[in-house]
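Task card 7
Instruction: Convert sequence to structure tokens.
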Amino acid sequence: MIHPTRTNLLLLKEKAVSVNNSIGILRARRQALIREFLSTTLPFLRTREDIRKAYGKAMGELALSLGHEGRESMESLTLVTKREMGVEIRERSIWGLKYRDVIMHETPLRMPGERGYDYLSTTPHLEECIALFEKIVESMIEIATFESKLKRLGEEILKTTRRIRVLEERILPELRIQIKAIAQYIGERERETYYRLKRFKNIMQISHEGRIED
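Output:
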């Protein structure tokens, strides 16, 4: 145990106050991160559901397009419409928490006339199929951003929760035990000093009265 002095008692009390303040700050931070996590989860789940629905519909349109256009024609269109898409990875921050964001410089979605072939000679099924798959690519890029953000938020929420538990369940109780022990020790020592002084005073008073009688 720390040496039981008034100075150390005051230092321990200041430390306990500091720990309490830290717990309050960490709780506020965790609450803010949880709110951000929940607000990000909803669009993430919605985007995943949109992809699932779009993929099912796109595969249906693809099957119809293969039946109308033929595999060779579809493969030739694939070569014509092929293109490279550029994305940029940027580092962003929320409440001091850094995560990576995916930035699209151009949208995967194109108008039929921008795809490099005569869309007037194709079927509506093919145009719908291509549009759906381009939409799926766009949604998958959005999901990549959400996943990165959610992963970092989840990790930070768990880390903050562990810190709060350590402060609440270990450090703060130990400080309180030390404060109580030192306070009791100082209190007992002061009472002993008080009784000694009182006894000494009584002895001195009796001795003084005895001299007066003589």
